[in-house]
Amino acid sequence: MSNFDYDLFVIGAGSGGVRASRMAAGLGARVAVCEDRYMGGTCVNVGCVPKKLYSYAAHFSHDFEDAAGFGWQVAEPHFHWPTLRDNKKKEISRLNGIYRKMLGNAGVELIDGRGQVTGPNSVEVNGQSYTAERILIATGGWPFVPDVPGKELALTSNEIFDIESFPSRIVIVGGGYIAVEFASIFAGLGAETHLLYRGDLFLRGFDQEIREYLATEMKKKGVQIHFNTDVEALSGSPGKITLSLDNGQEMSASHVLYATGRVPNTAKLGLESAGVELDDKGAIKINDCFQTNVPSIYALGDVVDRIQLTPVALAEGTFLAHHLYGEGRPVPDYTNVASAVFSHPNIGTVGLTEEQAREKYADISVFVSEFKPMKHTLSGSDERCLMKLIVDKATDKVVGAHMIGADAGELIQGIAIALKAGATKAVFDSTIGIHPTSAEEFVTMRTATR
Ligand code: NDP
């Protein structure tokens, strides 16, 4: 046993920090974790979890409309924002409690307060000093808002979940995951919703066809999309904001949400004084085993800026605990990490986009299926579904799968397993479908589209 207070001191009780702490303690290490804000981090408090709850809420508006074609007569529905917001708050408090309990049960000491690294083996929290053989930084990320005049009028994903009054007119700036998800949420809940994106088409990095399809589907659902538009300044006061745009026009809004990316949360952590190196984006530099240039200090999750997804941070936390205190594990594999965008409709994606596959392989086949889902033959909804598979012709391996449609996020997880296992198109073709589902299209696309 070392002479330090702890074997491992973790700063940040988010997805990665909690996972690493619990696993390390389970493997016999003496572990402390400090947290100054959210038990469970961004995901539980101002990210994945509340976002998904609000996304469910927003889907109801279409469900009420769809029900009529199936014979249901539904009275004019009304949405009550405080009910959703406060029910969400209760659920998040419950989850915060569960996180606390899980750490306690695992034998991890939880210290409430902001940790600051004071040396290679020491951390200070609330004026008290602790020593540890190893320190793990798992402080996640923080919303980035560009330096536009009036930026203090903008909300970020940190505040949007708990706003007092429901927006009459919301403008969302950005074209990434958060922007399209919130545009779908607020449009679904009944706000006049505008999405402003500086480029030609949102979701840069996703499959081009999927991006275009989503833009069409979101417009059908009432989101007013303004591409090639950026904001030069915000003015006015909360609730009555004017946006001055780079095309010379002005827009007004009750709320403005900036979803323009997230940056590593490294401020005031004492990293400079400990000599921990950051990259040019401000992320902590690490080697394959999550070790910084200071050998006793490690980092993982969004603060190292690899892939900013909760399951990735969980995989990293699991790896590190086993690497340091168990029998070791292979380093996390970042290929074929599936993800979903909870826009309406959802996107589910795994592997290469068509554009990436064309660059990487000499010859590819692309299979596309585009259709009206069975449910909408009676619902009267004009929502459609797109699925595509990308195949490397030389090996017949499926190297990319993409979907836009109801429950794409649920569906793509199974496809991700197939890709991870190296499934060929012949394996997809020999898999018998489940009828009648949308998912069966993934195993019945026989003729290449291009
Ligand atoms: P993203 O990095 O996904 O997108 C940022 C967007 O903001 C891009 O469209 C970018 O445009 C735009 N942008 C960046 N800087 C500026 C600027 N100065 N002015 C105007 N626009 C700008 O970030 P998000 O904030 O949406 O999400 C952060 C991360 O969180 C995601 O990358 C994802 O990893 C994770 N996340 C995952 C979710 C999920 O799994 N469902 C849900 C939510 C978040 P451009 O493309 O032109 O650079």
Salient structural properties:
450 residues; Enolase-like, domain 1; binds NADPH dihydro-nicotinamide-adenine-dinucleotide phosphate; 3 domains; FAD/NAD(P)-binding domain; 12 helices; seven-stranded mixed beta sheet; five-stranded antiparallel beta sheet; alpha/beta
A few lines on this structure:
With 450 residues, this protein is α/β, with parallel strands linked by helices. It has helices at residues 15-26, 41-46, 48-67, 81-105, 177-189, 208-220, 271-274, 310-325, 354-360, 375-379, 408-420, 425-430, and strands at residues 6-11, 31-35, 109-112, 115-119, 122-125, 128-137, 141-143, 169-173, 192-196, 224-226, 231-237, 240-245, 250-253, 255-258, 262-264, 297-299, 339-341, 347-351, 364-371, 385-392, 398-404.
Structure in words:
The chain folds into three domains: 6-141 and 263-325, FAD/NAD(P)-binding domain; 151-260, 3-Layer(bba) Sandwich (FAD/NAD(P)-binding domain), CATH 3.50.50.60; 339-443, 2-Layer Sandwich (Enolase-like, domain 1). The protein is 31% helix and 24% strand. The chain has helices at residues 15-26, 41-46, 48-67, 81-105, 177-189, 208-220, 271-274, 310-325, 354-360, 375-379, 408-420, 425-430, and strands at residues 6-11, 31-35, 109-112, 115-119, 122-125, 128-137, 141-143, 169-173, 192-196, 224-226, 231-237, 240-245, 250-253, 255-258, 262-264, 297-299, 339-341, 347-351, 364-371, 385-392, 398-404. Strands 1, 2, 3, 4, 5, 6 and 16 form a seven-stranded mixed sheet that branches. The chain has a five-stranded antiparallel sheet with strand order 17-18-21-20-19, with helices on both faces. Strands 10-9-8-14 form a four-stranded parallel sheet. It is globular and about 70 Å long. The chain binds NADPH dihydro-nicotinamide-adenine-dinucleotide phosphate. NADPH dihydro-nicotinamide-adenine-dinucleotide phosphate (NDP) binds next to helix 5 and strand 17.
